[in-house]
Amino acid sequence: MREKTGILCLLVAGCSTVLLLAVIVFMALESWPVWSVVSPRDFILGTNWNPLAEPIQLGIGTMLVSTLWTALGALMLAVPIGLCCAIFLAEFAPPWMTNILRPVLNLLTGIPSVVYGFLGATVLVKFFEVNFAMASGESLFCASLVLTIMVLPYIISTSESALRAVPAAYRQASLALGVSKPYLTLRVLLPLAKKGILGAVILGFGRAAGETMAVLMLAGNTMVLPTSWFSKGEPLPALIALELGTSVVGSYHYQGLYAAGLVLLLFVLLINLLLALFRRERRSGVN
Amino acid sequence: MIDRLWQTIFWLSGLLLLLLLVSILSYLIYRGHAAISLEFLLSSPKGLPLGAEGGILPAIKGTLCLVVLAVAVASVPGLATAVYLVEYGEKNSLSQIINTTVQCMAGLPSIVTGLFCYALFVVRLGFGISLLAGGLALGMMVFPVIVVTARDALLAVNNHYRLVGIALGVSRRYLLVRVLLPQALPGILGGMLLAMGYAAGATAPIMVTAAAIATPTAGNLFEPVMALPYHLYILFSQQVSLDKAYGTALVLVSLLLVLNVIALWLRQRKGRGV
């Protein structure tokens, strides 16, 4: 039983689907000529980015390593903290505490990335410069620290709902057996909510890898292959944000940046599709 | 013993969150309050380099223009998509595809949105670096936020209304316009405010499509605009003035907090009864 309104809404909703497709196609089109100069393999693995040199060098390997390093580093810190917070919210927090923490989480996501980046650059970087006698405190580690705070709310709320989705029967059974509450959460609920928590980790990874402003202001922006967590680097989004304005439209430089954007886009899309798959599986698993 | 330890760890991690927000806000207030004055808020950037002696009125105006444009562009399609997902596409495969797409769009890195809009609006369609291009880019960015919040608001409407409507033989459209949408209105408005806050803080997309270091006017669709987050970025990265940067950050964060608090309050409210 379809009506005009329904069809209209469907049309609009369909357009939004097409819009995502358009983004992919458009990015591919803009970067098309560059693939005749450099093969996809060289583009991704190459470590020299020199779009103005002769012959032209386009390799985003360094930037990819920086991106992965900052994002994975952020996850290493955010996942344990986030899980503890999620367990606290789902199992231990008294209602008044939950009523405080829920808006706190919302407000933390409401603080824009440029402010996080700015605070990180003025507080954290200064701290490293003063206390560790570094010439300049910017590093992948700083970027990871700030990204940790930024992805924390996403990880917490997703894993909290995963914990809450565990059927009550398990809790009742454990209570009846006289098991302590920490044991119950760590040994029973956590393994049961494994899939949902993995989803939370993936979501956090996608967020951290795509974040621009914070890494732009904190990672140091040097195009050297990072060798440790404490060296500088230039993650992919920072490269694009820094160079797009100065690239000549239609030049290999411009197309190279779109190719870099395409790589980032496909990477994040893949992560999101994985996430969608996960969610669907979980839903059918619960029913 | 071990149990005690775990319990303490969980409590501490919860308190850490609270501490995080409180310390961020209090530090911003501590460093930023000195810069804020009526003159700072109500004049154009002054000094050399520009902005060193404050003045953020054009940036505030520009951000408001961008945000209003973004939500105006995204709200109608967002609402329509949410209505389709909840009221018409009852869990068919099409609505599943749309759901997944919306999720993917929400996960799109904002710089990629910026790249797309730069190529399409600024270069191909010839808008140039402009308020219009930036508003469209932000609109694209907040579209999934509006869909998801409107969807949740509609889902939260008590199902009895739908059943009663069907039982009374009321047309679906009447039911939607006269019963369901008014019920979901606070949630939908709250979602739009949330989207506004999201758009107001976004920097990467407008950095490449709309923002200028300084413009005398704000509001012309085809001119670049100043915006608070970009102004903050420039004040910091060009080392114009750290004090003014803290002031700008404080203004931006206060604006967003107000928006977010109203949004939270609205989303928890129930719509008016029928």
Automatic annotation (TrEMBL), chain A:
InterPro entries: MetI-like (IPR000515), MetI-like_sf (IPR035906), Phosphate_PstC (IPR011864), Phosphate_Transport_Permease (IPR051124). Belongs to the binding-protein-dependent transport system permease family. CysTW subfamily. Keywords: Cell membrane, Membrane, Phosphate transport, Transmembrane, Transmembrane helix, Transport. It comes from Desulforamulus ferrireducens. The chain crosses the membrane at residues 7-29, 68-92, 104-128, 134-156, 197-219, 257-278. PROSITE patterns: ABC_TM1, PROKAR_LIPOPROTEIN. Gene3D superfamilies: MetI-like. The keyword Hydrolase does not apply. GO terms for cellular component: plasma membrane. Residues 64-275 form the ABC transmembrane type-1 domain. This is Phosphate transport system permease protein. It is found in: Cell membrane. Its main location: membrane. It is a multi-pass membrane protein. The keyword Transport applies. Part of the binding-protein-dependent transport system for phosphate; probably responsible for the translocation of the substrate across the membrane. GO terms for molecular function: phosphate transmembrane transporter activity. GO terms for biological process: phosphate ion transport.
